[in-house]
């Protein structure tokens, strides 16, 4: 009776030892996480499994899930072309060629991050307070290339109504009514002429008269002969001649939306201020001179 019990106990210990060994004698490796852009990439470790089982445990099988985008779900190092970010799991099974028993099973995962080849950015929504006003549309930048090899980008805006250049990355929009513009980008390699990608984005330009500051709403004080603006109209360079004494003068130039585009504070007067409105868009602007909070001069400025 004792011998039977001892024999059973020994067999149980041997089975437990074999089971423990079967679970620990191999280690699967799905490889490091990777990013996919425009070319297929290879996943799996180097090697995909470490086998220390022995005892004829040399028959190795691989199973990758999901199979989406895989060249071969039963290869140790398959190639993959995913359409979205995917976590792949490899299960490695090792079987003895002698006993045909399973020696070991092990799993491992790898994340393949999908990067859009390029993205378009039409910019944020804009508002023009008066018909005839303008805004610059497009992002900063208007196109982002996630892949290497795309050295040329073409831009196309639709509709073209109100745009100064429908093929610029950041055109100036002057629509007469509220308009939604769509930016299409095409990225390609200028040497090989291979198309890398294309993408699109939209932006809404709202034309609203509710915030319009028209010339009728400006009480021009031009009777002050001691203050002169010349030349007016101007291209971008002009002078503000203040021929009177100011206590704490402020000269401000703003557009029809009320946005300040040039300002100088602390003027004591009796001076000529050169103003350079570099890169400003053509149109009507307003100049205002205040002294200690009191308006002493306003007039329209024409940039052409």
List the helices and strands and how they pair.
Blueprint: H1 2-24, E1 26-28, E2 34-36, E3 41-42, E4 49-51, E5 57-65, E6 79-80, E7 86-96, E8 102-114, E9 118-120, E10 126-128, E11 135-136, E12 143-145, E13 152-158, E14 172-173, E15 179-188, E16 195-207, E17 227-230, E18 237-254, E19 260-276, E20 283-291, E21 294-303
Parallel strand pairs: 2-8, 10-16
Antiparallel strand pairs: 1-4, 3-6, 5-7, 7-8, 9-12, 11-14, 13-15, 15-16, 17-18, 18-19, 18-20, 20-21
Main attributes of the structure:
single chain, mainly beta, Immunoglobulin-like, 5-stranded antiparallel β-sheet, 1 helix, 48% strand
Describe the structure.
The chain has one helix spanning 2-24; strands spanning 26-28, 34-36, 41-42, 49-51, 57-65, 79-80, 86-96, 102-114, 118-120, 126-128, 135-136, 143-145, 152-158, 172-173, 179-188, 195-207, 227-230, 237-254, 260-276, 283-291, 294-303. By secondary structure, the chain is mainly beta. It folds into three domains: 2-114, Immunoglobulins (Immunoglobulin-like), CATH 2.60.40; 122-211, Immunoglobulins (Immunoglobulin-like); 215-303, Immunoglobulin-like (Sandwich), CATH 2.60.40.3080.
